[in-house]
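From the pipeline queue, job 12 of 40. The input is one protein chain; the requested action is below.

Action: predict structure.
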Amino acid sequence: MWLLLVVLSSLLRIQAWKGSLKCFLEALKMEMTEVTGVSLKRGSLAVEGNDSMAPAEEAKRQKVLDSCLPTGQDGLEHGSPPTSGHVPGPPEAVNAGQGKKNSDVQLEEEEEDGLSEEAEEEEEAESFADMMKHGLTELDVGITKFVSSHQGFSGILKERYSDFVVHEIGKDGRISHLDDLSVPVDEEDPSEDVFTVLTAEEKQRLEELQLFKNKETSVAIEVVEDTKEKRTVIHQAIKSLFPGLETKTEDREGKKYIVAYHAAGKKALANPRKHSWPKSRGSYCHFVLYKENKDTMDAINVLSKYLRVKPNIFSYMGTKDKRAITVQEIAVLKISAQRLAHLNKCLMNFKLGNFSYQKNPLKLGELQGNHFTVVLRNITGTDDQVQQAMNSLKEIGFINYYGMQRFGTTAVPTYQVGRAILQNSWTEVMDLILKPRSGAEKGYLVKCREEWAKSKDPAAALRKLPVKRCVEGQLLRGLSKYGMKNIVSAFGIIPRNNRLMYIHSYQSYVWNNMVSKRIEEYGLKPVPGDLVLKGATATYIDEEDVNNYSIHDVVMPLPGFDVIYPKHKISEAYREMLTADNLDIDNMRHKIRDYSLSGAYRKIIIRPQNVSWEVVAYDDPKIPLFNTDVDNLEGKPPPVFASEGKYRALKMDFSLPPSTYATMAIREVLKMDTSIKNQTQLNTTWLR
């Protein structure tokens, strides 16, 4: 009996320890979400109340008005496809008129996750540190140099997602702000009653009809308290809330009914009715989207669910990070500002405003860049160190490396898959994506990989996946359809942009390595043989012209068939690197046109614009250190700082052009490796 009590006591202690470990790892994971969400500390990790908030504030953020969510669909937190391994539709697929149907996110779910949220959290918490042991460091992807001479210091990046705010800079050079929630006055808009006239049961039946979820060909809604005005509101409600449905009035046994039915089949969902949109109004409603802790694709998926439309009627100029507060312009085809503004009553962590009607959608790449407001908390640098670091960033800038996000977070870097594609090694492409890998993943992915390794049966491996929109699921579906001897076609099932992501990752890997060699060999001055752009054309710097340029003019090529290479030692370094990878630098055309690389040029040093900073003192790690657009709309006063406090934070503001990485600018300030693996090795050696 005594022995039994000892055993039971030990088991209880172990269970309690596991619970504590789970809580710690969850905090650690939140600190280091998505590669850029890392703690940049020298030797120790500070997890001081990540994203914590008062209970009342937490309850407020969790609240979602049930009446606004389409009945029978997931709530806000689960309104998007799973993020682990999930392949969002390619960016061009989201732009109206450019999309490809196979990349649309379906309104009608094909499958469910099948795992409880609690089970997933436990699995992820207990495996996160192990997964990070097998990730990449900056050294692995060629990020090795700094341009400044100041001494580095510690700081916590993205301790709270609200410490990282991104404002898009539009094609006209204006920084996007959410500062107006009013709806443009339009006499043709229906009354606000359209949002309340239908019951929850009626909405569910109409939604099932709209999405062809049952065998009904129509839905009849009895008009209680029959008046012409009431019938008009019901007609308007059905047509505006359920695109694709038409309505008519019928008399049945002395009672009036509004009958909803399909007029144009399934295509009506993707093509809103032309006759329901005022001719004098621009076809696209442009608006500013403020979002917290959601990436752009997930945000659009949520909006499309609430509006009951397909995501491909939305367009935007660029994607934004998840673990941040971001403000950007979005355009949507033939959805009124009134309907969009109504979502402000339904969604937490989203806010829509600054509405206007325009003739055209937005196009990817039209933006001039992004403006960042970043807080690095609990910094250790002296005021002099901070001053030197920020002056260097303002005057010299930083190496324009592709950041760690470009190369994936798992044990199989995306550039390895890209290299295999360029080598035409399709069996290796398949194996790299599907084979078992070191580190932790969701349980169903592990089982899928194990089944693949054991049987090489795509159908059997696919059955292990409850979530089939991930890359692995799409490839397995392709292998089931086309067979193991046609991997090229099977791989082609993956949306085009996601396939190209792999080869672009390889180009980025080569570019990072070559730029490090260029700076090591020649420093921060232009030299004869370097490349500069004149318009869109690259030309060489001659001996007599070298004094006419600065390092900020110098570009280097991403490898391809339509670029030239520097006329100095680095040209041979490109050739050697590609030769070592069994690629011919003189023949970058692929027999599959999609995978032919034309190449491009990229500046090697970027000098941020609109740089400003301040060091502030604070005591409470949970308090925000600056106001957001929503705070300003709500009239909240800006935070007031004491002259002294328990902690110090560096608040930075700067603007960057498109396709540059803010994490690389912050790396230059702190002089720290931004990879999750490096931070984990420093901070969690006890977990090994």
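Job complete. Residues 576 and 585 are 9 Å apart (CA to CA).
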